[in-house]
Design goal:
The chain is an alpha+beta fold and 228 residues long. It folds into three domains: 5-86, Arc Repressor Mutant, subunit A, CATH 1.10.10; 97-182; 185-225, no CATH class. 58% of the residues lie in helices and 13% in strands. The strands form two sheets. It has a three-stranded antiparallel beta sheet with strand order 1-3-2. Strands 4-5 form a two-stranded antiparallel sheet. Strand 4 (209-213) and strand 5 (219-225) form a beta hairpin. The protein is elongated and about 75 Å long. The chain starts with a helix and ends with a strand.
Length: 228
């Protein structure tokens, strides 16, 4: 059997300590939900695979009248995790459904586009809420994995910054959509082109003559005269 990134996500959690399945699933939701969600869906199958490969152990633990299985990493599992950590990491990839809706927005309604962007903003603000809670835990010394604060602070930094980015992008985008109501199509088109320049921090001249299209991509029989 071949290990994948989800395998290592589970193996890494077992390296932090032994877990029963319920607590392991809860930790996976808490730790990787916002940047590696597919690991959550496989959390119930993956520990058994790791046991079969000799990378983890499974022991029954009595809890009252019931028993539960507790998984722990083996020495071989630690070696495999260490080997994976020394490998080259794949480049970042982004899965963001609202951006699909942005791409295909011309085939729908601009109100639907605004709604999708607002929903993304709501999701970003959920990260703020969770991030504040986690911050309070670490600053009070009560976080479940307090001993890993040095590395985990970098994860908190990334996710907080990511949420700030989405929140700011949503504000800009919603402001642009709102401005469309008072702009001509040519003005909307020019503002869109200017956004490319602003975001890339490059002073690029406009082409001499750019055909103008409306929100739905239809030509309006006009053009923008550039500065070149």
């Amino acid at each position: 059997m071949k290990l994948n990134a989800t395998s290592y996500a589970v193996l890494g959690h077992l390296a932090m300590g032994p877990w029963n399945m319920y607590d392991l699933a809860a930790q996976m939701r808490r730790n990787v939900h916002y940047f590696f969600p597919r690991a959550e869906s496989q959390v119930y199958a993956e520990p058994k695979r790791l046991v079969e490969m000799g990378l983890a152990t499974a022991e029954a633990e009595a809890t009252g009248k019931r028993s539960r299985t507790v998984y722990a990493i083996t020495d071989a599992g630690r070696d495999e995790l260490r080997r994976w950590l020394s490998d080259e990491s794949r480049p970042p990839r982004l899965e963001f459904e609202a951006l699909l809706r942005v791409i295909f927005a011309p085939f729908g309604d601009q109100n639907d586009l605004a709604a999708a962007i607002r929903q993304s903003q709501d999701g970003a603000r959920e990260i703020f809420t969770l991030g504040e809670h986690i911050c309070d835990e670490y600053l009070s010394g009560s976080a479940p994995l307090q001993r890993y604060v040095i590395a985990r602070s970098m994860l908190h930094d990334f996710l907080w910054s990511y949420a700030e980015f989405i929140d700011a992008w949503a504000e800009r985008s919603l402001a642009r959509i709102d401005a469309w109501n008072d702009e001509s199509v040519a003005e909307q088109h020019r503002a869109a082109l200017e956004a490319y320049r602003v975001h890339t921090h490059l002073a690029r001249p406009e082409p001499a003559d750019i055909p103008v299209h409306d929100f739905h991509g239809d030509s309006v029989g006009d053009s923008i005269k550039g500065q070149s």
